[in-house]
Amino acid sequence: MKYFGGCDVGSTYTKAVILDEDGKLVSSTTIRSKIRSQESAELAMKEVLEAAGLHSAEDLTYLIGTGYGRNKVPFADENISEISCHAMGVHVTDPAVKAVIDIGGQDVKGIAVDTDGTVKNFALNDKCAAGTGRFYEAMARSFEMSLPEFSKLSLKAKNVIPITAQCTVFAESEVISLVGEGKPEEEIAAGIQMAVAKRCFVMAKKAGAVDHVALTGGCAKNEGLKAAIEKVLKLKVVELKTDPQLMGALGAAEYARQKGMAKER
After folding, report:
1. What is the CATH number assigned to the segment(s) 96-239?
2. Tens-digit pLDDT string for the chain (265 aa)
3. pTM of this prediction?
4. Which of 55, 144, 148, 170 sits a CA distance of 20 to 30 A from 222?
5. Is residue 237 within 8 Å of 215, Cβ to Cβ?
6. Would you identify the CATH topology of the domain 1-94+243-265?
């Protein structure tokens, strides 16, 4: 049996996936990224290889690096952009999905997926951290909550308190002030989720979303955000069967499988 790997070195988390020659997911892992991208890649690959019962990256037929630190994956045969890898990852998980919003640690991307899993079109917002994983970490800190706790808070809200600041720093100050004034926390959280959903509107349109969209990245696990996107964008958010945070690594591993199998022929 041949094995293929994908390593997605993100700004916040590093993910790794190993597939067998039939495309079955053998093992996966997600770790907090270190300061050095190479160290992140080495630690993630060590975990995923051990889980697969393999000794080293040399046991893989082909390995592809992707993400923010894709050029720092020392054992990769090549690297491919995370936009292409997220599209492919979603495609192998659910071929019916044609529009993706990837909310990473520092940027938001809208991706239109073609019938073969390649990228048809994409839009990227990397000018501001608002609405990204870093933004949500700052918001959770403001409420003195964990990210999972904060992601569900807005679901209890009966009303929405709008958040007017567009910048992460100013939004955090605005939220702290509102909390200090004794405003209902769930309604403040609802305002945060609605603000981010509105920022995703342009990305969804660029991705060609008509009636559905899939979310990828760690923020895809944010229940409040999913509900807000469905309300604001009037689109169904597709539930992916595989962890949405793994999509970049999964897509990289699938590209590795395709390239590795073609090379073996």
Report:
1. 3.30.420.40
2. 999 999 999 988 999 999 999 999 999 999 999 999 999 999 999 999 999 999 999 999 999 999 999 999 988 999 999 999 999 999 999 999 999 999 887 788 999 999 999 999 998 875 565 667 788 888 888 888 998 999 999 999 999 999 887 677 788 888 889 988 999 999 999 999 998 888 888 888 888 898 999 999 988 999 999 999 999 999 999 999 999 999 999 999 999 999 999 876 6
3. 0.91
4. 170
5. yes
6. Nucleotidyltransferase; domain 5 (3.30.420)
